[in-house]
Amino acid sequence: MGILRLSHTDITAPDLDLAAAYYTEVLGLDLTERADDRLFLRGWDEPDHHCLTVRFDPRVGIDRVAFKLEHESDLEVFEQRLESAGCAVSRIGDGEEVGQGESIRFEAPSGHEIELVHDVHKVPGRLPLVNPPPYPEGLRGIAPPRSDHVLLLAEEVGEVSRFFMDVLDFGLTEQILSGAGHQIAAFLQRSGRPHDVAFVQGVSGGLHHVSFWVDDWDHVRRAADVLAFNGIPVDIGPTRHGITRGNTIYFFDPMGTRNEVFTGGYRADPDFPTITWTEDNLGRAIFYYEGKDNGRFLTVHT
Amino acid sequence: MGILRLSHTDITAPDLDLAAAYYTEVLGLDLTERADDRLFLRGWDEPDHHCLTVRFDPRVGIDRVAFKLEHESDLEVFEQRLESAGCAVSRIGDGEEVGQGESIRFEAPSGHEIELVHDVHKVPGRLPLVNPPPYPEGLRGIAPPRSDHVLLLAEEVGEVSRFFMDVLDFGLTEQILSGAGHQIAAFLQRSGRPHDVAFVQGVSGGLHHVSFWVDDWDHVRRAADVLAFNGIPVDIGPTRHGITRGNTIYFFDPMGTRNEVFTGGYRADPDFPTITWTEDNLGRAIFYYEGKDNGRFLTVHT
Amino acid sequence: MGILRLSHTDITAPDLDLAAAYYTEVLGLDLTERADDRLFLRGWDEPDHHCLTVRFDPRVGIDRVAFKLEHESDLEVFEQRLESAGCAVSRIGDGEEVGQGESIRFEAPSGHEIELVHDVHKVPGRLPLVNPPPYPEGLRGIAPPRSDHVLLLAEEVGEVSRFFMDVLDFGLTEQILSGAGHQIAAFLQRSGRPHDVAFVQGVSGGLHHVSFWVDDWDHVRRAADVLAFNGIPVDIGPTRHGITRGNTIYFFDPMGTRNEVFTGGYRADPDFPTITWTEDNLGRAIFYYEGKDNGRFLTVHT
Amino acid sequence: MGILRLSHTDITAPDLDLAAAYYTEVLGLDLTERADDRLFLRGWDEPDHHCLTVRFDPRVGIDRVAFKLEHESDLEVFEQRLESAGCAVSRIGDGEEVGQGESIRFEAPSGHEIELVHDVHKVPGRLPLVNPPPYPEGLRGIAPPRSDHVLLLAEEVGEVSRFFMDVLDFGLTEQILSGAGHQIAAFLQRSGRPHDVAFVQGVSGGLHHVSFWVDDWDHVRRAADVLAFNGIPVDIGPTRHGITRGNTIYFFDPMGTRNEVFTGGYRADPDFPTITWTEDNLGRAIFYYEGKDNGRFLTVHT
Fold first, then answer.
1. What's residue D297's pLDDT?
2. Fewer CB under 10 Å: which end of chain A, C or N?
């Protein structure tokens, strides 16, 4: 029981047509639905209605992050647990949100609105359920099969990571500690992967990036080829993280939200021992090849 | 709560010195312990004491397959559940088995001895827990980071897959149905991967192969290079499975147990819809590139 | 001066529409011209008018193999040299053949018609000559950038390889010797690659396969994916050759001509020392991973 | 006849022990000979005695670049041709230089000393000439099979590239033109590869980098892993060049000479049409993914 994984990230952008063009043709997600002021997108291998939504707003930002619950009954369990922890919880009724059923929402100590949802509508996929090929024909752009994780900013990383561990049952796979022993980054998982959500020190409520999974290092290169061909500015990569060991490339959507394409990493069981990075190894922890930040990664966010 | 994943497979071999040489130098596992009549091995990225044991026996075969439980208390839960299902369950006390604590054992409808264990001893790994590189220096052979799954034989696949679903809470990711609608292969998961264990129609109690994870297609090629250099007979591959979409190579250890190196595949949530293969697509289901069995894959086992 | 590389292979097929569909949509060559009874094809990165032609004929077979000369004047040099060697040489005038200028033709000791040509017409490519991307958009199928080499059959391999070395200035990169020291396969190059043409013992005049270049191991996998998706029978692979070290996959076009997709291998300077394979290592020489022929590779040809 | 390819680059360094450690253990070349004040190194797949030499000198720099001639008699041909072009040519007698026979030396218009040599001594390689595996066991570090090309600086790129074309018979595969139509970079080949030597505008006599070949994109990643593990500063990459299409990573040896690991690119026949990059596409020409220089690539050299 409990949280299975990241469900979807809800971001905002001032130009939905541009967002639709970029997210379907360059990043290569499927547009499962377009409401008046909102796009619903998913990777080609995801059965759910959306892993990313983009709402029209003059400001580029983030509305909320949603995690998926294993059981319908988990809604009530977490409602009580959150209220015991002093969080105000609101119920979103079935039919209130496009493409999903009932959910609960609350504010994490990092200032982000978090949603927990069990029922996200199923949408027929690109592959048949009988004798399918390994991937569909006619994919466009980078075409990640699914979303992977999200990185958020928090003034007090230690506080919010403790909250995710204690109240939401996440495991801490990796952390960066300052020289003073203060937690300045935390990587948290429920799905058995290196991270479903992570926090890095910064302005509370901020979004650092939304990350999408690809299957291997060669696919990271093809992502870079697609980005360059389309004139999309690469933030950094292809490179490797020290944290998670994953291979990666970062880039910005045309409105300014940072995206990542990610592959690799280990499997994290519940008894996975936390890996610690010390601040003097910060550069290598983030970008194993470069050994340092590019002067933008730790300062630019939405 | 419940089963997390495959813990270890216990096989037998008539020559432990040869097995030790092969499994450490060619396959490239770590030998964590050698008891009088038994080898304990694990991949370089596994914290647990063993993912494979090899016991001396004049006959090549399999003793049991063990799955790992999330909680100590799961032992009792499954003990009761199994007894309710009519299975005789035996308790193995703490200290009775090398490298692990208390466990329960029972016979599955396929005739295999199955073990459930929570406490497998931790052995310090090859990577430090502070500022680690992405992989250790000095790896030998194929060097898979971990084991992945096991494929077993069963006369009545439908019966044993139903048992794994109903009693042990496994999810059925894929199945092959005969023309008459009879289940002739079943792929079952607890870990969110395409399979932790699978059954294919055959002589009950038999072992088809033990599979080890590698990170990508290039690593499958390097595995093939290592095998060829060492004169190890390749069964089939590098190729791709239709089932799981994974890339793979099969080969035999010098005593005759089939090994696999596997990568790729999807993530399987609890609500993952079962994929069905029809018997007329059997060849493509098993070997997507060849489109047919090699005349050995479905007949040779231990 | 002299031969630069393979120019084109002229094969026959009983169904040009099927050949056109397969060679453009599955193999992914460009159809640069279609004459009444002949297709002219090339890879997307080749400036020349054709690297493969398919002529209508009820019988599947090979008309000739053409090599490209560096200079127009080489035509006369080789004409004289060939006649001195006792070969009858015919001149094909400018305008007699579609897509190319003057050439000479003769019969090699293996019974194959060989053509030498300098002027193959240039056809505008898919990439611009100013600020090009690394590859064009909209490629279909396997889409090899170019052809690589051709493997022919000869009753007396030693005789024809000696001819290619002495009269045509090829270098012998590798050879297989029978137990009796007889050359049963010879690999010959002019372009600095492991082979532009090779001979293996068999029925003189026969064609074993036409090979196309791809850039890496991942592209070999994608070739296999394309073939499987299109139901094209794979002969063998993905695998590696001992000879050339290259990675490879073999398959048959729908009319029965064997194709190969090939990558890797070394650079062969003129002073490259010949590598010798002994007959007891024949299996490994041909298929390094399997260590033996598949029972079809050495017997089926066109 | 003529130049076959790059033979070797002779650089200087103030610490030969450090250079030996780095070039054998991190870059992974073979040290074929160590003279009093000089190291002779080569890639594991090169038959010649050296592709790189490092001479002790308090200053980090370059002594010369040597190209390999197909025939002994080419020495005299080029001697005459160079003298006709107004170049002073000196003969280095057999036995005067370690590991090679007679050669000629002259100064190119870019101020670099260039050597032409036919006879470089053969040193037994790591692979047998009978039934070899595809690569040797026990390679250390990045272990490129061979060197690839060298990039030099020249105040007047157009002048030196014209000299290499007219006097040394190089082909111009690619060039960058300034807005005023002035050639600011030129890529020149003899070996059928995208470049054996290139010039970029800068201080005449300078060395930008020495480049080594690896076989594919995965090997570029492994190079990055090796560099990061050994704390070697990466200049840029893994990335792709617009020019040559090749994948690449740049880094500095501990004395300050820039190295590159390179793979990919096309085959360049003598009639390969020159590709032109305009100055407004300079960033993409150099680093296709980043789309711009990193502020160090065009300014730091030795």
1. 82
2. N
- Please tell me the predicted confidence (pLDDT) of residue B173: 98
Q: How many domains would you assign to chain C?
A: 2
Length of chain B measured in residues: 302
Half-sphere exposure of D92 (CA within 13 A, CB side): 20
Q: Which helix (H) or strand (E) holds A20?
A: helix A16-21
Q: Does D295 score more than 80 pLDDT?
A: no
CA dist list (Å): C78 to A279, C74, C82, C166:
71, 6, 6, 12
Q: A171 and A86, same structural domain? A: no
Q: pTM to 2 decimals?
A: 0.97
* Window 212-231 of D, Cβ < 8 Å to A: 217-218, 221, 224-225, 227-228, 231
D296 falls in which pLDDT band (50, 70, 90)? confident
Q: Given A130, A267, A276, which is nearest B276 (Cβ)?
A: A130
Q: Are residues B153 and B94 in the same domain?
A: no
Q: Are residues A186 and A244 both part of a single domain?
A: yes
Which of D221, D247, D289 is nearest residue A234 as measured by Cβ atoms? D289
Query: Residue A225 and residue C134: Cβ atoms within 8 Å?
Result: yes
Statement to judge: residues B174 and B104 lie in one domain: no
CATH number at residue B102: 3.10.180.10
pLDDT of residue B237: 94
Q: List pLDDT tens digits, range C199-251.
A: 999 999 999 999 999 999 999 999 999 999 999 999 999 999 999 999 999 99
The 10s digit of each residue's pLDDT in A129-175 is 999 999 999 999 999 999 999 999 999 999 999 999 999 999 999 99
pLDDT at D300: 82
Strand partners, B50: none
Residues A71 and A113 in one domain: yes
Residue C131 lies in a domain: no
Q: Are residues C186 and C111 part of one domain? A: no
Active-site residues of B: which are they? 149, 195, 209, 241, 250, 260
Tell me how far apart the alpha carbons of residues B54 and B6 are, in angstroms, rounded to a whole number: 16
Q: Which residue is listed with tokens 């939200």?
A: A257
Rounded to an integer, the average pLDDT of C255-263 is 97
Contact C29, C43 (CB under 8 A): yes
Decide: helix, strand or coil at residue A58.
coil
Give the model confidence (pLDDT) of B157-190 as tens digits. Answer: 999 999 999 999 999 999 999 999 999 999 999 9
Residue-level pLDDT at D177 = 98
Residue B131 lies in a domain: no
Q: Which residues of C are catalytic?
A: 149, 195, 209, 241, 250, 260
Among C134, C135, C229, the residue with its CB nearest the CB of A133 is C229
Mean pLDDT score across all residues of chain C: 96
Quick check: D225 and A240 in contact, CB under 8 A? yes
Verify whether the Cβ–Cβ distance B225 to D135 is below 8 Å. yes
Lowest mean pLDDT among B69-78, B264-273, D252-261: B264-273
Give the domain extent around B39: 3-117
Phi, psi at residue C162, to the nearest 5°? -60, -40
For residue C54, what pLDDT is reported? 98
- One domain for residues A97 and A152: no
Q: Are A142 and A226 in contact (CB under 8 A)?
A: yes
Residue B91 within any structural domain of the chain: yes
